[in-house]
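I'll show an entry:

:::
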Amino acid sequence: MDYVVVEGLPAVGKSETLALLERFYPENVRVFPELVKEVVERERLDLFRDRVALADALVAALPARRQRILETVGHGFLCLEESHLGVHRAYAIALRDAHFPAVYDPLLSSPPDPDLYVRLEIPVARSIERQAARGTPRFDIDAPTLDRVLVELDRWHADRRITPLCIDADRPAHGVVEQLTEVLQLPYGSPRRGLTETFDILFLLGRPASGKSEFIDFMAHLATAKRAEAFHIAPFDVLDDFPLLWQRFEEDDLWEGLGHPRLHSKRCDGNYAVTDDRLWGFLIEKVSRELDRRLAASDPLLHRTILVEFSRGGATGYADALRRFSPGVLDRAAILYISVPFEESWRRNIARYDEKRRDGILTHSVPREEMERTYGSDDWGSIAGRPRGRLEVNGISVPYATMDNTPESTDPAVLAARYVAALGPLHATWRAAR
């Protein structure tokens, strides 16, 4: 499990229980407090009188909350969220507020979806007692309203064919915490997954549009445990020199706009082409320094994989680029080269641009002139003559694998089979050297 929501009546102990789990399992757990309460306090709203303003504020806050959850899961933590907007929808209906369901229901299909809903159960009468004891009357809900909320919440789950896992919370607190810990399978004193068995650094090489971005997107949509087990990739960061290259293009635009000659590039077929080949070495040096910095700052308890993505061409393109990385990087790295023929790379490059038909870094296509001059040939076949093996780079033996990515496919099953076939032996070779 990566993402679990804990729901329950007011004063059931959700906040307190989740705070305890986060404190005692800091290597594993991150808690997101109840979004409704967070928004009410931030916006200084009345929970009952400012219903329209609250609904609009919740809808506005939801994308950022979901993005933070995705990022938290991507970093390898178990994300525990207190309550969810399905609960608030039930409250809205119980309070005869039609506005929130109308604006919220269209958002229900947005990711991420929790792996599990846990309901902490207490009788309504016990909730009323605990609400009085906590002394926050502006959040108190009366018994008839709570009865209606439970009916609507059960309907919300039934409509989505979701069965919450129910935990009896009408008992001493230690029993509730113990059961929830068992349900979540939290190991004390260590990260919750064996992520140290995953790659430290994986160089992701290949021609433009060969499938590097698709590889990253595929991995980003997997649960952490599945990705680590099947593909040996932990929660990951991506270092890519293309945003740095795009920045040089934009700086040339600004420089040209001031009446000066462009420094590194020229306009070409509606995009850009590099005119100063010294730029390729500069970009790799930038990536190399950033990689060294991240390794120095990394926390060994929170193991991550760093994917280093770039394309190079010419007689010594990859050999020159790899030599610019430090021994500390090369000693921890493996290389996956995604192979497609030049004409296939060009076809995908054009198709990718034609599909989007808009400018920008994410939709940039390499002009034909640049493709032929820079990527028409590369040195991968000469430095890595077999499908898999080891490259000697600066005296360090770096494991590599070449993955044929033809014919093109968007079928996850086809892609998974290709990735497993390449990464499995590559990881075994990488592990044997460590």
About this structure: The two ends are 29 Å apart (CA to CA).
